[in-house]
């Protein structure tokens, strides 16, 4: 089973953390529902071209935070998680995405006011699209 | 916990070539790739593990038994796919299997049959009449089912086509799931190393550069693109520079320097594994 996980070479975020966060997003977004099996550590390390040590670290963190559970001899599965936790993941992912966009703009020497302007423009064009549809 | 294999202070001289000293411990569940240029000593290490070559110094233990001692009991706990295979030409795959299988207590006939089927291997042709790719597939089908705790693969995929390489990767992944095992492999196919290796044991003309966990290796170097021209002076960690781009072997120091000097990098990225290996062995 291939998971839609894409690792970034240019991100400062460690690889295990990228995997951890993307799996959280897949679980919170419902693409990986409760009870869904996750690939084995060896098989995911092959797909993502990482070591098993990295995948094990991501899985251990996810298990510790209650997103997944491992059952001896059967494998790893998506755990039952509360809606509050799902919401929290979604909110923090949106925050992170916007923060990244702001970082990009700052690296091009835009001022905060200019970034706000761009943001407003983008929001307005979305609103127009919604009105038209 | 005892490892599957322990290599301690291993050294071997062959004419003008000197290998080692090398230290290497294999934990169960891990795959280690030996990487280095041609003639860097990768295959020699596998031969030393198999006791086909005697070391000058140091020792090797497989499951806590010395391989260079008089007791050869350890041999059924290791499977080895050499490159090239010598002495098989006159025999068919079927005959070779009859020679090999009884020697290994955990021989998995089912896995053998599955591999013959997936690789589409002819068991009735003499080995010499098989194509190089089919010879490699047959060798692998006669090696994995031995189900030994330690598996040594010397260039297992050189002659395989793309679909066969995919089958090979799947087979290795499935094989590793089935127990506390370890693999040591050499390969010039970078995809084998990227998809399978957890640790890279890097060799430079016989000298052991180090053994690195794959992600640690990925974090060793970084490439930066600067918005302005580079300063004249040497930047901390600087390894290579071209135009407004530098490769650093100490990203922490380089970034601290950029910060102090108010230098902005427009972009930064980890290097590809192939680039990293090249930097380490040249």
TrEMBL record, chain A:
MF terms in GO = DNA binding; DNA-binding transcription factor activity
Q: Where is the signal peptide?
A: none
Looking at the keywords, is Transcription regulation present? yes
Q: Which Gene3D superfamilies match?
A: Winged helix-like DNA-binding domain superfamily/Winged helix DNA-binding domain
Xref: InterPro entries: Tscrpt_reg_HTH_GntR (IPR000524), WH-like_DNA-bd_sf (IPR036388), WH_DNA-bd_sf (IPR036390)
Task: Write out the entry's keywords from A to Z.
Answer: DNA-binding, Transcription, Transcription regulation
Ranges in a coiled coil: none
Domain HTH gntR-type, by residue range, is: 13-81
Q: Which Pfam families match?
A: GntR
Record's protein name:
GntR family transcriptional regulator
What is the organism field in this record? Virgibacillus salarius
TrEMBL record, chain B:
Which InterPro entries does the annotation name?
Answer: AAA+_ATPase, ABC_transporter-like_ATP-bd, ABC_Transporter_VariousFunc, P-loop_NTPase
Which intervals hold domain ABC transporter? 4-230
- Origin: domain of life: Bacteria
In Swiss-Prot or TrEMBL terms, this protein is called ABC transporter ATP-binding protein
Query: Which Gene3D superfamilies does this UniProt record tie to the protein?
Result: P-loop containing nucleotide triphosphate hydrolases (3.40.50.300)
Task: Keyword check for Nucleotide-binding, yes or no.
Answer: yes
Q: Which UniProt keywords apply?
A: ATP-binding, Nucleotide-binding, Transport
Give the GO molecular function terms.
ATP binding; ATP hydrolysis activity
UniProt keyword Nucleotide-binding, yes or no = yes
């Amino acid at each position: 089973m291939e998971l839609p996980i894409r690792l970034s070479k240019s991100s400062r975020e460690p690889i295990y953390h990228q995997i951890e966060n993307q799996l959280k997003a897949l679980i919170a977004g419902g693409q990986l529902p409760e009870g869904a099996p996750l690939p084995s550590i060896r098989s995911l390390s092959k797909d993502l071209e990482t070591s098993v040590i990295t995948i094990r670290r991501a899985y251990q963190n996810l298990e510790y935070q209650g997103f997944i559970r491992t059952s001896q001899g059967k494998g790893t599965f998506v755990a039952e998680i509360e809606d509050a936790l799902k919401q929290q993941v979604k909110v923090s992912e949106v925050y992170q995405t916007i923060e990244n966009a702001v970082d990009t703009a700052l690296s091009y020497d835009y001022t905060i006011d200019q970034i706000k302007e761009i943001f407003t423009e983008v929001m307005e064009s979305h609103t127009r699209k919604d009105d038209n549809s | 916990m005892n490892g599957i294999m322990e290599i301690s202070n291993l050294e071997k001289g062959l004419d003008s070539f000197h290998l080692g000293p090398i230290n290497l411990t294999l934990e169960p569940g891990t795959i280690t790739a030996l990487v280095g240029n041609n003639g860097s000593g990768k295959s020699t290490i596998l031969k030393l593990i198999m006791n086909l070559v005697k070391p000058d110094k140091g020792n090797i233990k497989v499951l806590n038994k010395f391989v260079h001692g008089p007791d050869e009991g350890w041999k059924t706990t290791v499977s080895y796919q050499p490159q090239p295979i010598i002495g098989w030409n006159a025999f068919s795959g079927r005959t070779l299997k009859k020679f090999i299988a009884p020697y290994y207590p955990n021989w998995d006939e089912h896995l053998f049959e599955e591999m013959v089927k997936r690789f589409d291997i002819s068991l009735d042709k003499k080995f010499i009449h098989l194509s190089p790719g089919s010879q490699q597939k047959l060798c692998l089908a006669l090696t994995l089912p031995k189900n030994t705790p330690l598996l040594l693969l010397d260039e297992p995929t050189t002659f395989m086509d793309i679909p066969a390489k995919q089958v090979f990767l799947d087979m290795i992944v499935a094989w590793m799931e089935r127990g506390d095992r370890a693999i040591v492999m050499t390969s010039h196919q970078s995809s084998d190393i990227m998809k399978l290796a957890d640790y890279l044991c890097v060799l430079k003309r016989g000298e052991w550069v180090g053994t690195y966990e794959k992600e640690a290796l990925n974090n060793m170097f970084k490439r930066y693109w600067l918005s302005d021209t580079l300063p004249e002076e040497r930047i901390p960690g600087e390894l290579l520079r071209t135009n407004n781009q530098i490769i650093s072997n100490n990203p922490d120091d380089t970034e601290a320097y950029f910060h102090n000097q108010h230098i902005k990098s427009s972009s930064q990225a980890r290097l590809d594994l192939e680039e990293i290996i090249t930097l380490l062995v040249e």
